[in-house]
Amino acid sequence: GEDVEQSLFLSVREGDSSVINCTYTDSSSTYLYWYKQEPGAGLQLLTYIFSNMDMKQDQRLTVLLNKKDKHLSLRIADTQTGDSAIYFCAESIRSNYQLIWGAGTKLIIKP
Amino acid sequence: DTEVTQTPKHLVMGMTNKKSLKCEQHMGHRAMYWYKQKAKKPPELMFVYSYEKLSINESVPSRFSPECPNSSLLNLHLHALQPEDSALYLCASSQDTSYGYTFGSGTRLTVV
């Protein structure tokens, strides 16, 4: 079945780059998404990438997609304390309203 | 308006109570969703409405009853809940399946 995997924690120093990784199993993915959830808040769509793209950049965020390895990454440049949150990777498959979610990566910022 | 608005933000209810969660969006999105999220876990899909019709019910117990009165509103009626139903309930909407969902900030539900 479909599966999305992420490591549970990432710790980085303020000002460094953060790279959050995600692997997925379903090769029929159409879109892949990164959502951010701050404590006590809802989910914020950060960015998404279509499955026929390799890279997408949006200000401090860079998404890289390796379709051969089914690997997705989110790079946050110049990580700030406000980036502290849980980051969820998710994929949509075919024409389906359902998303397959990763377990979420908690980003911890060290001063 | 690019938001999904959920009310109330917090709700405490007893196991014999009946309450409703409300969700509203004015982005013209034709799909609306209810998700349940436990602490530090990914959200779990409960229901999907597409063009005001229920299209997906993920085997949710009947004590949760969704309703879509019109294309902008989505309700979740709660009755005879259990303490294990305590969670963050998130509403979301999307234009179609392609561009991701817009989530509300959720209702934090505690069943006592």
What labels would you give this structure?
heterodimer, A: 111 residues, mainly beta, six-stranded mixed β-sheet, 11 strands, 0% helix, globular, B: 112 residues, seven-stranded mixed β-sheet
The amount of beta strand of chain B, in percent, is: over 45%
Number of helices of chain B: 0
Order of helices and strands of chain A: EEEEEEEEEEE
Fraction of residues of chain A in helices?
A: under 10%
User: Could you give the order of the helices and strands of chain B?
Assistant: EEEEEEEEEEE
Q: Largest interface, per-chain counts?
A: A-B, 25 and 26 residues
Distance between the termini of chain B: 36 Å
Overall 3D form of chain A: globular
Got a strand count of chain A?
11
Compute the number of strand runs of chain B.
Answer: 11
Give average pLDDT of chain B, whole number: 93
Give unreliable regions of chain A as ranges: none
**Largest sheet report of chain A:** 6 strands, mixed
Overall geometry of chain B comes to globular
Mean pLDDT across the residues of chain A is 91
Assembly context of the chains: heterodimer
How far from one another are the termini of chain A? 41 Å
Descriptive notes:
The complex is a heterodimer of chains A (111) and B (112). Chain A is mainly β. In chain A, 0% of the residues lie in helices and 59% in strands. In chain A, the strands form two sheets. In chain A, strands 2, 4, 5, 9, 10 and 11 form a six-stranded mixed beta sheet that branches. In chain A, strands 1-3-8-7-6 form a five-stranded antiparallel beta sheet, with no helix packed on it. With 112 residues, chain B is mainly beta. In chain B, strand 7 and strand 8 form a beta hairpin. Chains A and B meet through strand 4, strand 5 and strand 9 of A and strand 5, strand 9 and strand 10 of B.
